[in-house]
Amino acid sequence: MKVLVFCLKGFETMEFSVFIDVLGWARNDYKHDITVETCGFTKKVISTFNIPIIVDKTIEEININEYDALAIPGGFEEFNFYEEAYDEQFLELIKKFNESGKIIASICVGALPLGKSGILENRKATTYHLREGYRQKQLAEFGVNVQNEPIVIDNNIITSYCPSTASGVAFALLEKLTSKEEMNVVKKAMGF
What we know:
Elements lengths: L1 E5 L6 H16 L6 E6 L3 E3 L5 E3 L2 E2 L10 E4 L8 H5 L2 H12 L3 E4 L4 H7 L6 E2 L4 H11 L4 E2 L4 E4 L2 E4 L5 H12 L2 H10 L3
Parallel strand pairs: 1-2, 1-6, 2-5, 6-7, 7-11, 8-9
Antiparallel strand pairs: 3-4, 10-11
Helix pairs in contact: 1-6, 3-4, 4-5, 6-7
C-alpha cells in the first residue's frame, strides 16, 4: 500500500507529521506494507511558520494508480495555503483519487480543496470550526452537508475540524488501510 501526503504551500507541520509517524509506526514496528511518499508543487515546500520541507515528488510526477490514499494537511491563509490548495491541477488530482474510490484524508482546512473540487457535494464533511465557524460556512458554500463534529467519515473521505484532531485522522486512515484491530495495536503502542 502507498499513501501520498500532499504538502501545499503553507501547510501545518503538525498536521503533516502525524501521517508520517502513525503510518511509520505501522510499517516499522508492525510490518504493515505501507509506504508514504510526500508531494508538493515544488521539491521544497515552505510550511506555515516558514519551515522548509523537501518532498519526494512534485505533482507532475504523480500517477494516482500507484497510490491507495491521499492525505492532505491543512494550512494557513497567511502563509498562502489557498494559492495551491485551489489550484486546478490539485483539484483535478483530488477528483481522480475520488473517482478511483481511493481514501482521501484531510485535516482541518485540508477539507476546503475537497469541497472546491466538487467531490463533497451532498456529502457529510467538516473543517475548522472555531472563530464562529467561518471556514465551515465556506465549506457549506460548496454544497457540503457540514457536520460540527471532530472527525467526519463519509465513505472514502475523512475530514476533521482542527489541529487537535490530526492524530485521530491518521489513525482513521490507518484503520481504513488495515483494520480496526490493527489500528488499535499501533494506537496503543504510541500511547494514545
